[in-house]
Please model this.
Amino acid sequence: KRLILATRNTYKITELRSILSDAGLDVELVGADAYPEVPDVKETGVTFAENALLKAHALARATGHPAVADDSGLCVDVLGGAPGIFSARWSGRHGDDRANLELLLAQLADVPDEHRAAHFACAAALALPDGTERVVTGRLPGTLRRDPVGGGGFGYDPILQPDGETRTCAELTPEEKNAISHRGKAFRALAPVVRDLLG
Ligand code: ITT
Ligand code: NA
Model:
């Protein structure tokens, strides 16, 4: 059985493949890049769950295969949850991780360490071609550093230090990050749901 991963973000594809195959799903995992003719959907939702469902439904409808999608971001307490669903385009340039991270650090320059709590959030959605849908969420709580540290991961990984860690997410191995991450939690919760619905 074929399951489409409704994302073009190569880091996410790598993370999702390893999380879903660790969960023992007996399916062929195919990235959205295998369907270049399917246009990207606009992320017009106001929550991570709405956006994840929009992406999953669009791919499932267009390909005739079940699809899973992720919508995720960084939520900063002192900014009332921003950047949130706007994390990938916080600087105005979608997908420019460096510009997004640097703008956020500048905005938080005057915020003292004890007020730098933040979390990564992820909604993981499954959609079937017949319109059936499921969505679950996961979180990774932590504190924001003042300067980026570490070369792994993507996005805001170099500035988020998970609670209970001395390293940033960008200093963790992929296995260590998957074990505690918002995306790991959400997709490990989604895996049995996928297994049940795909039979
Ligand atoms: P797709 O829509 O194709 O999945 P995208 O990168 O645009 O790719 P999102 O809309 O979900 O994905 O944006 C997520 C943004 O949130 C991403 O660009 C990062 O800035 C941030 N983010 C999400 N998960 C992260 C993680 O595990 N580590 C660091 N930053 C993360
Ligand atoms: Na998004």
